[in-house]
Structure formats: structure tokens, C-alpha cells
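ok so for the tutorial part 2 we go from a plain amino acid sequence to predicted C-alpha cells. step 1 is just haveing the sequence, like this:
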Amino acid sequence: MCRFLAYHGAPIYLEEVVASPSHSLIQQSRHAVESRTETNGDGFGIGWYGERPRPGLYREVHPAWSDENLLSICGQVRSHLFFAHVRAATGTATMRANCHPFAAGRLLFMHNGQIGGFGAIRRRIEALIPDALYAARVGTTDTEALFLAAQARGLAEDPPRAVAETLGLVRAEMAAAGIGAALRFTAALTDGETIWAFRWASDNAPPTLYYHQDETRVIVVSEPIDERREEWRAVPPGSVLTAAHGKAAVLTTLAPLQAA
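step 2 — the prediction. this is what the C-alpha cells look like for a chain of 260 residues:
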């Protein structure tokens, strides 16, 4: 499983949360402690918002711990909202197009989880992506397919509903194919103003997700980035966390809609 981090609040240099803490995301790429996969070395990515409405994006296939460019960028880029992700591949190639986060216009999206049996139903899942969006599919991951399918269902307008509808359709395809493996969806989405973080799984065992908030910021992580674990709150399974303007997160329920 992958590890990720989302930040929203007072502008800071990315290195303050991506690289400097004792259990930073870069450290987690080498030694995650709350993941089935300890090493997340199949690429990484960062996406950040600056003076323009569309985010900047830097993704690479090298392990995060060995990329000097990542450290340099994190030490120079200052942002009020950014995503960072380290990847542990689940059956698809290690290439730049498969690294998170994924961008579309103002949107950034990253995911920790998988569509169980994706290789057997890949064509069915990709059929959920309309022709107008399919040209934007440049990688091979289930994450990118979910992102594009959700865009077609109003992701930019109503993210929780679009995600719920998409997950419902994917579950229906898995059931039709007789796939018993789990659909796991711990993910984060932003439009540059609001962060939505999702934690859900069909087997009630979604990958971990935590958040920390104070007067100036909200940080959402796969696992705590420092030793002050008592300050981190777990996002309950089946929930959507919403954070805007660096202020407190609001938790609501995520229930995949039944396919019509």
C-alpha cells in the first residue's frame, strides 16, 4: 500500500512536513509502520498550488529517499495547499504516468488502496470513463481509472456524491465478475481550495488515515509524521473528511451508491 500527505493552511515550505519530521513521508517511503508494505519505493509525486489556479506537479519513478531533486524542490517551494505521495505498486508498471498525484484542471487526486481483481475487469472499469475523458488516460493504474470515472459523475461539483456513485458502479462490476477481493479506497482530492479525504473499504478494513489540526492548518496523512501520536486523530472507516481554509475538518459518512 502507498503512503500520502495532504496539507492545507498557512503557507509553508514543503520540506517542513514532507522531509523534516522524524517519521516524514520520505522516511515512510523507506520504512512505513502502518502498512502491509513497509517499503514504498515505486515512485513518488508532489502537487502544489501557487499563484496560478492550476497546481504544479512533479512525479518520478525513483524512490523518494534517493531523489535529490525532490529534496531541493521541497526546500524551495512554499505553498498553502499541497499533496505528496509515495507509491507501492499493486500490479501495474513503475512509470511516471502511474505516479500520484493525478491532475485535471484545478483538481489533484491521490489514492492508497486498490480495486480487487483489477486485472480481470480492467476493460469493464475503463468502460466507466466516457470517450471525452478517455484520451486523458495515460497510465495503467486503477487509481487513474477511478479518478476519470468520478470526473464523469460530477467530481468537480460534488466530490462525495461522485465518489460514492463511482464506487457503487465499481462494486457492481466486481460482483458481476465474481471477484471476492476487496475494494479499498483511502484517497484525497482537492480543487485548490478544499480538501476531501475518503476512507472506505468493502471489507471494512480500509488503509489507515489520520488528521491533525491547529489554529493555522490541517494535515491529513496515511500515518503520523512525528512521535506526538496523541495529537493525531484517526478518520473513522466509511467517512469523508472535509477541510477548507486551513480550518477544522468535518466528518461525514461515505456510502457507495447502488448501481441502477
